[in-house]
Amino acid sequence: MFKSTRFALSILTVGLLVVGCTRNDSSNKTDPDKKPSNAVASKHVLDSEPASAKGVKEVKQQAKDGDEVVVVGRIGGSDKPFTGRASFTIVDVSFKPCPDGEGCPTPWDFCCEAPDDLAKGTIFVKFVDSAGKTLANDAKALLGVKELSTIVIRGQAKRDDDKSISIVANGVFIKQK
Amino acid sequence: MYEAFGFRLLPWDYGVRNLLRRPARSAMTLFGLTLVVVLVLVVVGFIRGLEVSLSVSGDPQVVLIHTLGAAENMENSSIPSSQAALLSASLKSVQRQQGPSGSKVVCASPELFLGTQVNIDHESEESLGLVRGITPATPLVRRNVQILQGNWPGPGEVLVGRLAATKLGTRPEELAVGKTVTFEGRTWKISGHFASTGSALEAELWCPLEDLQLAMKRQDLSLVAILLASGADLADVDEFCKERLDLELQATAESTYYASLQRHYGPVRLLAWLIVVIIAGAGIFTGMNVMYGAVTGRVRELATLQTIGFVRRAIALSLLQEGMLLAMSASLLAAAFAVIAIQGTAVRFTMGAFTLRVDSTTVLIGVGVGLLVGVLGSIPPAIRAMRLPVVEGLKAI
Q1: How many A/B residue pairs have CB atoms within 8 Å?
Q2: What is the CATH number of the domain that holds A159?
Q3: Which chain B residue is nearest to residue A125, measuring alpha carbons?
Q4: pLDDT single digits (tens) B319-333
Q5: What pLDDT, in 10s, does the model give residues B82-116?
Q6: Average pLDDT score, chain B
Q7: What is the DSSP letter of A82?
Q8: Judging by beta carbons within 10 Å of its beta carbon (0-12, 13-18, 19+), is residue B24 exposed, middle or buried?
Q9: How many domains does one find in chain A?
Q10: What pLDDT does A40 receive?
Q11: Which one of B66, B110, B233, B355 has the minimum C-beta count within 10 Å?
């Protein structure tokens, strides 16, 4: 009787230690498959697809500073397309990620495409606050997107000089997660 | 009278005296176990040295800006020199310090970094060295660098890291201040020596950026290292690089860069831990062999102890005590030897050089292995001693 009680207590102690020492990382993880529900997200995520979306290449060539644009693309262009804030790069939908069989750990970097072509078909997108500063929230959690998500961005083109162009977005429609 | 666990124990000094009764065998066992623990300390010191060298190399406030895709190999990075000025002017997140006459100095260090053949004092044999072209702004970013001897390098001069001699496979005297080294077709006079809290930089040779570019007939840079302003983070620089895709730049936190090198050396560390296990295993068998010998040679003595009233568990415990005493003495001797003779020994590796670290963690692991060798090596002979029949033991020759 005494032995079995002691055994049960030992098991309980070990169990408590294991449970107590297991780190709960759920607060730090972002689940892109989960639909964003907060107010900031709902302000940016569109329920319907904006009409007349253009490809990234077309927008990069034609858009002038301040133009209202609607652009369709896939999140990617490098091994880390997200910055950790509400900003990321998207690439033209004509680019194909490396096939699954090639064992590429980051197919969203489109490493099978020619680097020069990829640079011409990649654009930076950011969601900003009223002061023009990029929102501090991670885009993955804020918008419910992830690498290779196909999205339609609605926003304003920002061209600094002849070479550099980005989009200050005010809405995103997620076509495919 | 010693009593514990419900039975009478053999006196503590009985075990000690037993060890001294056979001084030659005890000394040889002590030497063998010391050797085992020293080997363990060397291997653990190697692992710790590599880990610490790479972990202190990354300053969390420093961001490296380099070519796209060169995050794991800065030597392959090439960015136009003009981009250093552009980055300094455009990046708001770079720390700015008060300069002379009220001007602001941007904490950005344009650098050219490469591995190249270095010839010491015109000897025929060349070694692969790590060379970094630097500017007077470099110490603003590389905050841990200290000049130990001599001066900052002037034109045609080179500042030598504390571990550069190890990296080049030569004696430190060969790189004394005033001596010369030859690389990239030019002879450079050594202006001084520097340290950097044990980081990977200590294996490098630093010379003026412009001189290096001239010697190599190169106009480009490998990277621009920047010191982040208070409150700024990597995302600020990352956003700039992603927004200015035309510049084809990428930002990597220096700590991330060295963490990736840590991962790169993962298999080496795994192998080193495997060696620790093998050495410990060998030590356990050595200890076991010696203790078996001790039991076999003392069958009559152990039987006599039982006859006069000591239970078998007390005898087994005494044998365990002997094994532990030897192992702990060996561990202490080995730790003392390691701290005096092994600590700080420089080791060359592909990314530079580092020193063996016999710190508290290393000593704890070494002594722990020694203790384990003592316990595990003594248990089977102790069990054997417990099984010996008293009558047969007393008749044994």
Answers
A1: 39
A2: 2.40.50.140
A3: B243
A4: 888 888 988 999 999
A5: 999 999 888 989 999 887 777 889 999 999 999 99
A6: 88
A7: B
A8: exposed
A9: 1
A10: 56
A11: B233
Q: Which of B242, B244, B249, B252 to mutate to test the interface with A (most CBs of A within 10 A)?
A: B242
Secondary element (H or E) of residue A169: strand A165-176
Cβ pair B246:A119 closer than 8 A: yes
* Mutation target among A56, A75, A78 for the B interface, most CBs of B within 10 A: A78
Q: Does B51 contact chain A (CB < 8 Å)?
A: no
Q: CA B210, B125, B169, B272: dihedral to nearest 10 degrees? A: 110
Section B289-300 average pLDDT = 76
* Rg of the Cα atoms in chain B: 30
Q: Computed over its alpha carbons, how large is the radius of gyration of chain A?
A: 22
Given the cut 0.90, state whether the ipTM is greater than it: no
> Are B243 and A123 an interchain contact pair (Cβ–Cβ within 8 Å)?
no
Q: Looking at this protein, which amino acid is placed at residue B337?
A: F
Query: How far apart, in whole angstroms, are the C-alpha atoms of residue B35 and residue B19?
Result: 19
pLDDT at position A1 over 60: no
pLDDT for A11 beyond 70: no
Whether residue A6 is contained in a domain is answered as: no
**pLDDT tens profile B156-205:** 999 999 999 999 988 899 999 999 999 999 999 999 999 998 888 999 99
B239: nearest CA partner in chain A: A83
Q: Is residue A169 part of a domain?
A: yes
Q: Hey, is the C-beta of B89 within 8 angstroms of any chain A C-beta?
A: no
Percentage of residues in chain B with pLDDT exceeding 70?
97
Nearest to A152 by CA among A56, A67, A70: A70
Q: How far does A111 lie from chain B, in Å, by closest CA? A: 10
Taken as a whole, chain A contains a residue count of 177
**What is the identity of the amino acid at B259?**
A
A28-51 pLDDT, tens per residue? Answer: 444 444 455 465 556 889 989 998
Which pLDDT does position A42 carry in this prediction?
62
Contacts of residue B248 in chain A, CB cutoff 8 Å? 119
- Closest CA–CA distance from residue B60 to any residue of chain A (Å): 17
- Tell me which chain A residues have a C-beta less than 8 angstroms from the C-beta of B246: 119, 163-164
Res B1 pLDDT > 70: no
In a domain, A170, yes or no: yes
Residue type, B67: T
Chain centroid, CA A1 distance in Å = 59
Q: What's the confidence (pLDDT) of residue B184?
A: 94
Residue A134 lies in a domain: yes
**Which structural domain range is residue A59 located in?**
46-176
Minimum Cα–Cα distance from B234: chain A residue: A83
Which of B90, B92, B239 to probe by mutation at the A interface, max A CB count within 10 Å? Answer: B239
* Residue B76 and residue B70 in contact, taking contact as beta carbons nearer than 8 Å: yes
Q: What is the DSSP string of B260-324?
A: HHHHHTHHHHHHHHHHHHHHHHHHHHHHHHHHHHHHHHTHHHHHHHHHTT--HHHHHHHHHHHHH
Asked if residues B5 and B322 have their Cβ atoms less than 8 Å apart, the reply is no
- Residue A141 to residues A26, A30, A81, A144, B372: CA-CA distances in angstroms? 13, 5, 14, 5, 49
Q: Is B68 on the interface with A (CB under 8 A)?
A: yes
User: What is the rounded distance in angstroms from the CA atom of residue B162 to the CA atom of residue B160?
Assistant: 7
